[in-house]
Specification:
single chain; alpha/beta; Rossmann fold; 2 domains; 4-stranded parallel beta sheet; 13 helices; about 15% strand; globular
C-alpha cells in the first residue's frame, strides 16, 4: 500500500450506514481490511444506530433528533470516524448542529461532528494514501453521489484512488455529477422521475463503454442496480471499497 508520506498509526472508529449493514456487509469488511492494512486500529461499536437522516429528510425532525441522540452516544469523540458513505457523513457534519441547536447536546455535536470522514476522503486527505495496492480489470465510470459531492465536497479523492488501481480504466462522463434519482424518499414519492434519472445514468455509462459503475454510496448503487437487474443490462455496480481492497 503506497503512501505519499509516512503517517503514525492511529485509532479510528468506523460508522457503517444502514444500507451497508443490512444489505452489503462485505463492503464494510473490505473497508476495515483496507484501513487495517493502512496501519489503523479500527474500533467498531456494535451499539451504533442509524444517523437519523431518513426521518429528517421526511420532515420528522423530532424523531430524527431522538435517533441522532443515540447515534452520538456510540462515538467517543476521541478519534476520527470513518464512514462507508458520503450521505451519512454529510448529514452528521452539516445538519446535526441544526438538530441540536439550543440543546444540552450542542457542545457534544460541535466536538464529534467534525470528526466524521467519508472513507476515500479519509484515505487521501488524512492518511495520504493514493494507492491501496489493488488490481481490478475493466472499464468503469465514477458516479459522484450527491451526499459525497454536495454535502462533503468530495470530488478528487475517489478518482485519485481509482486511477492508481492496476488494470482499471476510469472513464469520465458528462453526467458524472448528476443525481442518480434515488434521493431516499424521493424515489418513493416521485417514482417515475426517479426511475427516469436512474435509467439515463445507466445508459450513459453503457454508451461510454463501461463495465462498472463505481461510487462511494451504496444507496445510489442499489437504486441503479435495480434498474440494471430489471432490464438485464451489461453493466454492474460496485462500492469503491470493493474495488480498492487488495486481492
Amino acid at each position: 500500500m503506497e503512501k505519499t508520506k509516512t503517517h503514525k498509526k492511529m485509532k479510528v472508529e468506523i460508522f457503517i450506514p444502514c444500507f451497508v449493514d443490512q444489505l452489503f456487509p462485505q463492503t464494510a469488511f473490505n473497508m476495515v481490511r483496507i484501513l487495517e492494512q493502512a496501519g489503523c486500529d479500527v474500533l467498531y461499536n456494535v451499539n451504533q444506530v442509524c444517523c437519523g437522516q431518513p426521518a429528517f429528510n421526511a420532515g420528522f425532525h423530532k424523531e430524527s433528533r431522538a435517533v441522532a441522540e443515540k447515534f452520538l452516544e456510540t462515538f467517543s469523540g476521541e478519534h476520527l470516524v470513518v464512514a462507508a458513505g458520503g450521505s451519512c457523513t454529510g448529514f452528521v457534519r452539516n445538519y446535526y448542529r441544526q438538530l441540536f441547536t439550543g440543546t444540552e447536546l450542542s457542545e457534544d455535536v460541535s466536538i464529534k461532528a467534525p470528526l466524521f470522514y467519508e472513507f476515500t476522503e479519509f484515505l487521501v486527505e488524512k492518511l495520504k494514501i493514493l494507492n491501496t495496492g489493488s488490481t481490478f480489470k475493466g472499464k468503469a465510470v465514477y458516479h459522484d453521489a450527491c451526499g459525497a459531492l454536495r454535502e462533503c465536497g468530495i470530488k478528487s479523492a475517489p478518482r485519485k484512488l481509482l486511477h492508481n488501481i492496476e488494470g482499471l480504466q476510469l472513464i469520465e462522463t458528462e453526467d458524472c455529477e448528476r443525481c442518480c434519482g434515488f434521493g431516499g424518499t424521493f424515489s418513493a414519492k416521485y417514482e417515475a422521475i426517479s426511475v427516469a434519472m436512474g435509467e439515463q445514468k445507466v445508459h450513459n455509462a453503457i454508451a461510454a463503454g463501461a463495465d462498472y459503475i463505481i461510487s462511494t454510496d451504496l444507496s445510489c448503487l442499489m437504486h441503479l442496480d435495480g434498474y440494471i437487474q430489471q432490464h438485464r443490462l451489461p453493466v454492474k455496480v460496485l462500492h469503491i471499497a470493493d474495488v480498492l481492497v487488495p486481492g
